[in-house]
Amino acid sequence: MTTTEHITEYTTEHTPRTAGVAVADLTEIRVREPGRIAAAWAARRRRPLVGRDGRLLVVAADHPARGALGVRGAGSAMASRSDLLERLVTALARPGVDGVLGTPDVLDDLLLLGALDDKVAIGSMNRGGLQGARFELDDRFTAYSAHEIAARGLDGGKMLTRICLEDPGTVATLEASARAVTELAEHGLMAMVEPFMSVHEGDRVVNQLDPDSTIKSIHIGAGLGASSAHTWLKLPVVDELERVMDATTLPTLLLGGDPQGDPHETYASWGRALDLPAVRGLVVGRALLFPPDGDVAAAVDIAAELVHGGSGGGS
Predict the structure, then answer these.
(1) Strand, helix or coil for residue 290
(2) Residue 161: which of 182, 177, 184, 183 has the closest Cα?
(3) Within the chain, which residues score under 70 in pLDDT?
(4) Of 81, 179, 215, 231, which has fewest CB within 10 angstroms of its CB?
(5) CB 251 within 8 A of CB 278
(6) Strand locations in the chain, DSSP E?
(7) Model pTM?
(8) For 201-260, what is each residue's pLDDT tens digit?
């Protein structure tokens, strides 16, 4: 089945249905047939990590597990799971979308909806640093482990790795991320490291997005683990990106973050960044799933064109 032949249907209430399962059915399945989840992972049709063009467009959906539900100042924009799933199913059905990044609850839902066949599935691993918590920089691994990612047939794991030089707890995060990189590499699976130099500003944790801080985070993140063979970086779009990307030979995916300002300016910045050789695609959630005009498909199509050009995808 090609991307354009995705079997998503909609009920008259616009609830996404895929392969006979609707969002409204998910709770009943979880109550009466929880074994269907493991069976569906075992039966899922997989694809290579990258296709002919060596690029990836991945939709991110792991923010809610860290308590980060806001988009453009709307604090509960991602609070509705049914709404989020509808947006994700729409996005994954578009040509050129390679896959999704999420926690087990989200990926299991998408799996039951039939949306993950022939898609890259990346498991989000450490969600313990809850947004706004006093322990936010304690990014413990509370979701997928490398073992579970391999056992369920996912394609890789992502770890948020915030580095605060004033917080002794950072070293535990670095150690855990390094262990995850090593274990994923042992299984031949992508380790997606998302490093930031971070600081406390009052009650908030703020990531430092200047070029020199980003370069420092790259060198620290790239050095984690016993092997870098399967390590990719997930980095923000910052100023002087050509100089920043000269800090690594690792393939890099750019993140979208909480969208601000004119979407067309955001798309333009992505397009310029994607011209750099080490930049191999995008991992974007809120900017595509919650565009200002509400047209998820149109926003995703723009991103797919930026990543894959006229090929419609890399597979």
Answers:
(1) coil
(2) 177
(3) 1-19, 257-258, 310-315
(4) 81
(5) yes
(6) 8-10, 16-18, 21-22, 56-61, 99-102, 120-124, 156-163, 190-201, 204-207, 231-235, 252-255, 279-284
(7) 0.90
(8) 988 899 999 999 999 999 999 999 999 999 999 999 999 999 999 999 999 999 986 677
